[in-house]
Design brief:
Elements lengths: L2 H27 L5 H32 L8 E4 H8 L10 E6 L4 E4 L1 H18 L3 E9 L2 E8 L31 H11 L3 E6 L3 E8 L18 E6 L2 H17 L3 E6 L1 H14 L3 H6 L3 E5 H7 L8 H18 L3 E5 L1 H7 L3 H17 L4 E6 L15 E4 L1
Parallel strand pairs: 2-4, 8-12, 8-13, 9-10, 9-11, 11-12
Antiparallel strand pairs: 1-3, 4-5, 5-7, 6-7
Helix pairs in contact: 1-2, 2-5, 4-5, 6-7, 9-11, 11-12
C-alpha cells in the first residue's frame, strides 16, 4: 500500500473514532447534556460524517480510475441547471460568497454524476483555500463548454503547480482541512474519461477550468422522420442524393439529441455525410473528436469480415461488435448505421449479407441500440426477400 494511501486510511480511521466518541456521549449522557453541547455534538456528527463520505468517495473513484473500471453514461447535461442544483445554499465557510455566471446554452456531452464530482471537488477546493468570493461560470465557445471555478485567494503555491493534478498532492495547510489529496487528480481523470480536460491558471487567484464537448446544435430543426424507434430497420435507395439525405437525417437526429452514432459507410458516403451535416451547422469533426461520432470504413470491413466466403464471427466481434460495445459502455444511448451488407449484395453475395445481418441481430440481443442498414437498388429492382430479417422497412 502506498504511504499516502495509508495516511488517507489513517485519516478516515481518526474521523470514524471522532464520530464514535460524539455518538457515545450523546447515547450515554443525552439527558444530562446542556442544550448547547448537544447541538455541538450533533453538528459535529453531521460535519464529520460528510467528511468521511467524501474521503471514501474519493478513494473509491481513485481505485476505479486505476482499474480502468469507471462507469460512465454520457448524455446531454445542462450545466446551468446542474450547477444551481449542486451549489444550493449549504455548509460553507463563514464569510464566503458563491457567485454564479451560468449560460443556458452551456449544454455538454458528459455524465451528470461525474460532472457533479468534478464541480464539487473544484468548488470545495476553492472554498477551502481561496479568498472570500468563489465564482462559478459556464460558457460555450464553439464546440466546447468551459466550466470555470475561480477564487480571489492567493493561488496555488509555485512549488505545487507542476504536480497539482497528481495523487496525494497537498499544500501545507491541507491536513487540517479534511481533504483526501485526491480531489484534483480525480477531477482531471474524470474530465479526461469524458473526453474533456481540466487546467489551472493564476488569474488574480486560483482559476480551474474544466472543458467538455458541447452538445452539437443545428442551424435549423433537423427535417425528416427519425427512424431510430424502428429497431433494426432497412432503407433502400436508388439515387445517391436520397441515400445521403436519409443518412444525414438519421445521424443528425442522434447527434443533436446527445446520442453516440456509429457509422459504417464507404469513404465516399462519409464525405457526403460530413458535407450534409456541415450544411446543417453541425460540426462532424468536433463530434468525432468528442467520441460521439465513430466512423467505420465499410469498404475495409467488407473485405475483412469474410475470408472464407462466410462471415467470421470472431472478426465481426473484433472489428464491429468491439467498437460498438465500447461506445455503448460510455454513452447512455447509441445508434448505428451500416452499409457493409450493401457491398456484399452489390457483388451478388446475398448469403454474406444475410450472415452479417444475423450477426448484427445477435449483437443487438446483447446490447440495445437502433440499427439502420441500407441497400442500393436499381430503378426497376424489387425489394429483396431478405428484408424479413429487419424489424421495419423505412424508405424505398
Amino acid at each position: 500500500m502506498k504511504d499516502d494511501e495509508a495516511q488517507l486510511i489513517h485519516d478516515m480511521r481518526n474521523t470514524a473514532l471522532v464520530l464514535r466518541g460524539a455518538a457515545q456521549q450523546l447515547h450515554e449522557h443525552d439527558a444530562s447534556l446542556p442544550p448547547a453541547m448537544r447541538a455541538n455534538l450533533t453538528a459535529m456528527l453531521v460535519r464529520r460524517s460528510d467528511m468521511l463520505v467524501r474521503l471514501l468517495a474519493d478513494l473509491t473513484t481513485s481505485h476505479q480510475v486505476e482499474r480502468d473500471d469507471l462507469a460512465l453514461s454520457l448524455q446531454p447535461v445542462h450545466l446551468a441547471a446542474l450547477c444551481r442544483e449542486v451549489l444550493q445554499e449549504g455548509d460553507r465557510p463563514v464569510g464566503t460568497q458563491l457567485v454564479l455566471d451560468l449560460h443556458d446554452d452551456a449544454v455538454v456531452l458528459a455524465d451528470p454524476l461525474r460532472v457533479t464530482q468534478v464541480l464539487d471537488n473544484l468548488v470545495t477546493n476553492a472554498l477551502r483555500y481561496g479568498g472570500a468570493q468563489v465564482r462559478v461560470s459556464a460558457t460555450r465557445a464553439g464546440s466546447v463548454v468551459h466550466l470555470a471555478v475561480s477564487d480571489d485567494g492567493p493561488g496555488v503555491p509555485d512549488d505545487l503547480v507542476d504536480t497539482l493534478f497528481d495523487a496525494y498532492v497537498r499544500g501545507a495547510s491541507s491536513p487540517g482541512l479534511g481533504g483526501s489529496g485526491l480531489g484534483l487528480m480525480i477531477a482531471r481523470k474524470l474530465c479526461e474519461a469524458m473526453g474533456g480536460s481540466v487546467s489551472y491558471a493564476h488569474d488574480g487567484g486560483a482559476r480551474f477550468t474544466a472543458t467538455f464537448a458541447a452538445l452539437p446544435t443545428s442551424d435549423a430543426p433537423v427535417s425528416g422522420r427519425d427512424v431510430a424507434h424502428a429497431g433494426h430497420s432497412v432503407a433502400f435507395w436508388t439515387a445517391t442524393d436520397r441515400m445521403a439525405r436519409d443518412l444525414m437525417t438519421y445521424v443528425a437526429h442522434g447527434l443533436v439529441a446527445g446520442e453516440a452514432v456509429v457509422v459504417a459507410a464507404t469513404a465516399a458516403h462519409h464525405d457526403l455525410l460530413h458535407e450534409a451535416l456541415t450544411g446543417l451547422g453541425i460540426d462532424p469533426h468536433g463530434a468525432i473528436a468528442a467520441g460521439q461520432y465513430v466512423a467505420l470504413d465499410a469498404d475495409e470491413l467488407h473485405h475483412d469480415l469474410a475470408p472464407d466466403d462466410h462471415i467470421d464471427p470472431q472478426r465481426f466481434a473484433t472489428r464491429i461488435a468491439g467498437p460498438v460495445t465500447a461506445v455503448a459502455r460510455r454513452w447512455q444511448t447509441v445508434r448505428v448505421y451500416g452499409e457493409i451488407v450493401d457491398l456484399y449484395s452489390r457483388r451478388g453475395d446475398d448469403h454474406l449479407a444475410l450472415e452479417l445481418e444475423a450477426c448484427w441481430n445477435e449483437l443487438r440481443r446483447d446490447i440495445s441500440f437502433p440499427l439502420l442498414c441500407a441497400y442500393e437498388l436499381a430503378p426497376d429492382e424489387v425489394v429483396p426477400s431478405f428484408c424479413d430479417c429487419h424489424d421495419a422497412v423505412v424508405a424505398i
